[in-house]
Amino acid sequence: MFFHKKVPEAAAGVADFGYLPSDACYLDAACQTLRPQCVIDAEHEYYTSFNACGGRVKYRWGEIVDAKVLEARKRILAYAGKSAREYAVVFTLNTSYGINLVLHQLPEEYRRIVTSDIEHNSVFLPSMTWAKKRNAERIVLKRTADGSLPAVSAHLKNSVVLVNSMSNIDGRKLRNMRELADAAHNAGGILLVDAAQGFAHDPERLRETDFDVAFGSGHKIYGPSIGFFVIRRSLLERMNPFFIGGGTVSDVEENEFTLLRSDDEPHAPLEVGLQNWGGIIGLSTALEWMKQRHDLRERTEACSKQLFDGLRALPRVHLLNESPSSICTFHTDGIDAHRLALFLSQQNIMCRSGYFCCHSYLKHQRGLPPLVRVSVSYSTTPDDITRFLGALKKILSAF
Ligand SMILES: Cc1ncc(COP(=O)(O)O)c(C=O)c1O
Q1: Please, where in the chain does CATH 3.90.1150.10 lie?
Q2: CA–CA separation, 372 vs 50, rounded Å?
Q3: pLDDT (tens digit, 9 = 90+) per residue, 365-386?
Q4: pLDDT in tens, 196-230
Q5: Are 278 and 357 in contact (CB under 8 A)?
Q6: Ligand 1 nearest-atom number relative to CA 168
Q7: 325 CB under 6 A from ligand 1?
Q8: What's the fold here for domain 25-31+294-397?
């Protein structure tokens, strides 16, 4: 119906990241995955072939954009395992932005916020500001070693539960997410899930969970830099949007306005101004690409295991992970994490050092020094892991 470059059915991802220099060893997928060529092409195609605004224009290019944006919303809902009858998709800048946007526009009835000790600052900080602003109680629960949140009904009464479904420190997953959603609902609360990592590595659990909102970032699932969230329509309808502007209203008089509330465009009150149309289209392509990469999980898990086993076997390496994960974090005896990351970078091995926006847990609760984080995705090869482990061993032997 409209121009559409097909997602290539590439053999084992070779064509997907063909632009990557042969000596580049990219191990920072928890921050941003590399983008497959077809995602880059899709975004490029928007700018060069139908560079129009969505949702407003009557000319042909705009119709193409509208159709593609609708398709993107459908793909996100399908990926999250939710129906358009019950849920809506809203586009934002990133996960952090989405969390702030939703949290501060929630109905007034929620009097408490429950979060956990291993949250990203993008959850931790908004939960603080929300509690302060509403004069509400804030509870920080300790996640168990298996990633579950041990919340009881006294915690959940009329509460907003805001937690990640997968940690960006050690990949721990929210194993009791489904039960948590049910318990929160039974107590008059809601479950907001920071699925920035979970959308990439644990989508099945999101699909089987009756969450109220799940937040994601396109850049962590092979898409462009863009955010989105999947929100229960009945919650969205009860929200009090005050962060408003173009596209959010159905009528405006000199001193009054009427919010746009429509069954066809439930997202409208939360999508302020023109959107990142090229990014939305690229994200849609990324989801289609993921669907077609049947070996995505297998490849990522193989590299994760190789990485975990290799790090565990190295003397003087203190690994935080208790089990293999696409995200492994460690510190070493003898060399500071930032220096280590710099030495690795000299060999074009790219990984992270620091506290990964989890200062409260890593620095203050655990009293740890800065750490190194290595994270893998579909573009990672067993050779990358071998190269990283070899380089690490060599650097450590020099100290
Ligand atoms: C678990 C988790 N939550 C939230 C975020 C914030 O995501 P963004 O920077 O896309 O807003 C990240 C980013 O690394 C993350 O890993």
Answers
A1: 25-31+294-397
A2: 43
A3: 999 999 999 999 999 999 999 9
A4: 999 999 999 999 999 999 999 999 999 999 999 99
A5: no
A6: 16
A7: no
A8: Aspartate Aminotransferase, domain 1 (3.90.1150)
